[in-house]
Design a protein that fits this description.
With about 150 residues, the protein is mainly alpha-helical. It has one domain (about 5-145). It is built from four helices and no strands. The protein has helices at about 5-75, 80-110, 115-140, 145. Helix 1 packs parallel to helix 3 (about 115-140).
Length: about 150
């Protein structure tokens, strides 16, 4: 075996090593990209869920405040302007709930269980506002101050 043949063998081995290194580098880069993509997707899911949970928590707090005002109403300390202000503030919360529901539908699809449950909660919040309006109208119509007007 001459030096030309040895050079040819060494060149072949070097070429195979370079190709192997390139393949390995490509596979590692692809794995890293896939992993980073999965992490980014998880972060996006967390963000959507966190925003939806925050909107739901805010709705819960507003509903609790409205319930406290209604309890005052039942106790005879009716403050219509306060209740109306709270209901107006709750309108903004309803917008946040709707926005969060839309983002959940986009992220998970409209048939996903999370979306279905969230939309049911939003529907309950809308029903709550409707009931509050009925209570307010009933007490405003039947209050002693409205009878003297």
């Amino acid at each position: 075996m001459g030096t030309a043949e040895i050079s040819l063998i060494v060149s072949g081995i070097s070429a195979v090593a370079a190709i192997g290194t390139g393949v390995i580098t490509y596979r590692l880069a692809t794995r890293r990209f896939d992993h980073e993509r999965r992490l980014a997707d998880l972060d996006a899911v967390r963000l959507v869920l966190d925003d939806a949970a925050g909107a739901m928590q805010r709705a819960h707090s507003e509903m609790a405040q409205i319930n406290r005002l209604i309890a005052q109403l039942v106790d005879g300390a009716w403050k219509t302007p306060s209740l109306r202000d709270e209901v107006r503030a709750f309108d903004r919360v309803l917008q946040l709930l709707d926005e969060a529901a839309a983002r959940l539908r986009i992220r998970f699809g409209s048939e996903h269980e999370i979306v279905t449950l969230y939309e049911a909660a939003v529907s309950n919040a809308l029903e709550f506002v409707y009931r509050v309006a009925q209570v307010e109208q009933e007490f405003t119509t039947n209050s002693p101050t409205s009878a003297t007007k």
